[in-house]
C-alpha cells in the first residue's frame, strides 16, 4: 500500500453537513492522488445523514474510477447511522 498525505482523509470529529464541502474536496483529492485512498475515522464521533450520503458518493466514485480505498479506524457512529438509514458505505 502506498500512503502519503495526499491520499489520507482525516474525517475529524464530525462528518456532517457543516463539513460536507470541505470533506468533498478532500475526498476528491484523495481519489486523484496515487495509491490507495484512506479514510481515517479515528476521531470521528458524529455522522449525520449528509455525512453518510457523502461517504456513499465517495465509495461510488471510487468504484467508477476503479480506485482502491480503505478505512483506518472505521467509526462506530458511522455503523450506527447506516443502521438507522438502512445503508452501508463499506
Task: Give a written overview of the molecule.
This protein has helices spanning 20-32, 49-65, 76-85, and strands at residues 8-10, 14-15, 37-40, 46-47, 69-72. The protein is of the alpha/beta class. It has one domain: 2-Layer Sandwich (Transcription Regulator spoIIAA). The strands form two sheets. The chain has a three-stranded parallel β-sheet, with helices on one face. A two-stranded parallel ribbon has the order 2-4. α1 runs parallel beside α2. The radius of gyration is 12 Å and the shape is globular. It starts with 7 loop residues before the first strand and ends in a 5-residue tail after the last helix. The model has no long low-confidence stretch (mean pLDDT 89). Residues 1-66 form the STAS domain. Pfam families: STAS_2. It comes from Halovibrio salipaludis. This is STAS domain-containing protein. InterPro entries: MlaB-like_STAS, MlaB_ABC_Transporter, STAS_dom, STAS_dom_sf.
Supply database-style keywords.
90 residues; alpha/beta; Transcription Regulator spoIIAA; three-stranded parallel β-sheet; 17% strand; MlaB_ABC_Transporter; STAS_dom_sf; MlaB-like_STAS; STAS domain-containing protein
Given helix and strand content, the structural type is alpha/beta
* CATH homologous superfamily grouping: STAS domain
How many runs of DSSP E, i.e. beta strands?
A: 5
Query: What amount of the residues lies in strands?
Result: 15-25%
The order of strands across the largest sheet is 1-3-5
Largest sheet: 3 strands, parallel
How many domains comprise the coordinates? 1
Pfam family, one: STAS_2
Organism: Halovibrio salipaludis
Protein name: STAS domain-containing protein
